[in-house]
Amino acid sequence: MTSDVLTAERVRPLLVGGASLALGVAAWWALAEFSQIPAYILPSPGEVIDRAVGLASTGSLQLHTAQTLAEVGQGAVIGVVIGVLLAMVFYHVPFINRLLMPIIVVAQVTPKISIAPLIVLWIGLGIASKITLVALVVFYPILINMLARLQSMPSTMRDLARITGMGPVRRAFRIEFPYTFPAIAAGLKIGLLAGVTAAVIGEFIGATAGLGYIEKQGQDNDDIRLVMVALFLLSIIGYLLWALVGAIEKRVVRRFN
User: Fold this and answer.
1) How far apart are CA 81 and CA 187, in angstroms?
2) What are 202-252's pLDDT values in tens digits?
3) Which residue has the higher pLDDT, 36 or 54?
4) 98-112, pLDDT tens digit by residue?
5) Rounded to 5 degrees, what are φ and ψ at 93?
6) Domain segments of the chain: what residues?
7) 97 vs 99: CA distance, rounded Å
8) 43-73: string of b/e by CB count within 10 Å (b at 16+)?
9) Which of 198, 234, 186 is nearest to 111 (CA)?
10) What CATH homologous superfamily does 40-256 map to?
């Protein structure tokens, strides 16, 4: 009985999401087919799919998608490492927290679209500048979430580490990381969604490949179908990354518990 309930709980969101998506596509198709809106402003779903298939047949779509995924993936890894390390340092050395946190906050509130040209000028048009932008937006929510979780850690857990004589490394892996993992995962979910946006911004500013690059090409050439292909793929990438982190989080938390 419990297994049936769990299965229903897992399937229900998928069914609701699928029905919602189907209704949205149907409404889009009806609006494109039966309204007076020109196709160059609102193409039908079939026209957008045809454009995507044409790009995929030449290998272009796979190339640009792989480029954006590489930027987001590598930037996310760097952002996670920086966020976790900074959170640990800020927690154990409050003076560094007070010294550096204001600078980090100022850097984060500055619009990334304003920072992107500067990073591109410093690092160049290659993939490194996009990875830097992604890492810049990914590390912050991880830092803030993990630090808040560490600061809320019960004193009994700290006392346990002290009594058992745990060193800093052992304490981090046996107590602090397991306790803060849900916060890290939550920060990574937010960071990845922002990271996809950051990668696209970097590709808009200057790139030779990527979904943001082909979206910019579509805009410059008044190719609405190309723009929509890029948008849909970016949306799918963002959702799949978010779902992947959620699935990993469930497995890891279950193991810790």
Assistant:
1) 12
2) 888 877 889 999 999 988 888 899 999 999 999 999 989 998 998 888 888
3) 54
4) 999 888 888 888 777
5) -130, 85
6) 1-37, 40-256
7) 5
8) bbbeebeebbeebeeeeebeebbebbbbbbb
9) 198
10) MetI-like (1.10.3720.10)
